[in-house]
């Protein structure tokens, strides 16, 4: 899953962090082509964040009554998916120390993962805190995943993977459009795993920084680097 | 009734396991002595600064804890990803079995529930902050040595939309039989609950 | 059990190795807490030193103008500012926090640190630094006692000269606190020492811009007062009174080899000057 862009939105809808990770080359202007994609500027992203925040809230009201009543049966557990965003070991020497998982780190308990000991941030399945809010937005150009923490922070990942739209033959003979098959579930789970790791990075590099103003945009270089490294692993 | 009790015990057992597992495998550790002496140096300095005005010292410790708590909660949640607690009973278990275990390697005992289950006490044995500490005679009556813990709990709970009062009622350092901390839920900050949760 | 099975590799443990192993086991058996708790406590001390200074100044000026207790009460209840401050404005205002019947005004730590960095009153600034250094000093003294009594087979305090003491600080003290020793120790063998830590742990998560301009470095300075005090405290505990020791910190560039670029962009150098006692 290639992550194109990451946003972090605080509990009041303010944008804390936004980065694009895949450079979009300008499209050649052919006579029949639509206009080339414009990059959004920072103001646009602020508006995007607060819009998303609002849409997220509205979406939670859209759940049909019938589903709401049967809420106790829904399993919100996200299984642990190994190696999401983690560097693969062996055969990748690259530039040595650019990816934190290399052998160049110093000291005992080498802080590849900050204060998280071991080779991955977490290894067990967990329950999603996002029960009735928006989790995935599928379009034919990108897919957006949203992970919300208990403290109201939203981590939004925009991925270039497009969820396939398949026609599924049902036993009764009529074709049904099954977009929400297993592939979509898996994608959400991978995204949740990934975004929880970004949350771990946030708790390490943003919360532990006494200069960080709560609820304000994140200016930490270190956090940025770590996120980029993880995204690099995801995109390869 | 017995069925729900057994389900809570399986839940609380797995909380215990979660806490222990994270403590054992995922936490960098340092000697408690070091932690205790750092805190002791801090309190000693506060004694000197505030010229033995104990209420100010207590408040300062509480403020410190509060600022730590609002940040520490994100670490706790990222690390454990525990689901939202349905009630204070569950909250008390998460606090005593997971939170205290992961950060201080102790499991305080939960007791003294109020009738409507909105307040409880934590009995802390082996308080790592007060290892080897003895209070001077004139301080004994009024200072809550580990008041920073109250601040941490208050700040952390507030970030998960639980407005609570947290205060000490007894402390071994004062000559009481045990160290006891009380947590009382004032209200749930419903407006703050992130949409989509519940 | 065949006693031969207990031997490691092919040779029996020497007396020294046995002691080392015992010491290691002993250290591992000591009660522990999370490093995180320690780190957060340590870093919160700095903004709180600022808050204490503010409070003391307020109290002093109130004492001069009127009844102290009622003034403090009024300050605490925040007359005129007692409306509910919406929690979203955390970063802008003080938080009014109710704590068991009293209303505390708690300033968030980032605000206090900003205030400290922009403090123009030299006297106040120095007071705060002194406060932090004192805390470090107490820590250093106690740590030294702790380590002396820990029966470390590598340490022989009776035979320690100044150089060995500095090595003790670089290795054992630093390791206890920050899990790694000092990276580099330089000395002129006449009482001047430079202890260089390229990755001083408590400040690793501090975010500054890549070039780390002087103004931003100044904001980090208060955080170095505690280790300065600590070094002085250890030296005091081992016989070098604080009047004879001067401790200053400064930032150094990291060496050019390809260390992982994550972390605080600069290393820290602790310059220790000890007036050599005539022996």
From TrEMBL, chain A:
Residues 91-107 have a biased composition (Gly residues). Keywords: Endoplasmic reticulum, ER-Golgi transport, Golgi apparatus, Transport. GO terms for cellular component: endoplasmic reticulum; TRAPPI protein complex; TRAPPII protein complex; TRAPPIII protein complex. Part of the multisubunit transport protein particle (TRAPP) complex. It is found in: Endoplasmic reticulum; Golgi apparatus, cis-Golgi network; Golgi apparatus. One of its GO terms (biological process) is endoplasmic reticulum to Golgi vesicle-mediated transport. It holds the Pfam family Sybindin. This is Trafficking protein particle complex subunit. One of its GO terms (molecular function) is guanyl-nucleotide exchange factor activity. Residues 87-110 are annotated as: Disordered. Belongs to the TRAPP small subunits family. TRAPPC4 subfamily.
Automatic annotation (TrEMBL), chain B:
Gene3D superfamilies: Trafficking protein particle complex subunit 3. GO terms for molecular function: guanyl-nucleotide exchange factor activity. GO terms for biological process: cellular response to nitrogen starvation; cytoplasm to vacuole targeting by the Cvt pathway; endoplasmic reticulum to Golgi vesicle-mediated transport; intra-Golgi vesicle-mediated transport; macroautophagy. SUPFAM superfamilies: Ligand-binding domain in the NO signalling and Golgi transport. The keyword Transmembrane does not apply. The keyword Transmembrane does not apply. InterPro entries: Bet3, NO_sig/Golgi_transp_ligand-bd, TRAPP_component. It is found in: Endoplasmic reticulum; Golgi apparatus, cis-Golgi network. Pfam families: TRAPP (PF04051). GO terms for cellular component: cis-Golgi network membrane; endoplasmic reticulum; TRAPPI protein complex; TRAPPII protein complex; TRAPPIII protein complex. Keywords: Endoplasmic reticulum, ER-Golgi transport, Golgi apparatus, Transport. Its main location: endoplasmic reticulum. Belongs to the TRAPP small subunits family. BET3 subfamily. PANTHER family: TRAFFICKING PROTEIN PARTICLE COMPLEX SUBUNIT 3. This is Trafficking protein particle complex subunit BET3. The gene is NCAS0C05400.
TrEMBL record, chain C:
It holds the Pfam family TRAPP. GO terms for cellular component: cis-Golgi network; phagophore assembly site; trans-Golgi network; TRAPPI protein complex; TRAPPII protein complex; TRAPPIII protein complex. Residues 60-84 are annotated as: Disordered. GO terms for biological process: endoplasmic reticulum to Golgi vesicle-mediated transport; positive regulation of macroautophagy; protein localization to phagophore assembly site; protein-containing complex assembly; protein-containing complex localization. Gene3D superfamilies: Trafficking protein particle complex subunit 3. Belongs to the TRAPP small subunits family. BET3 subfamily. This is Trafficking protein particle complex subunit. It comes from Naumovozyma castellii.
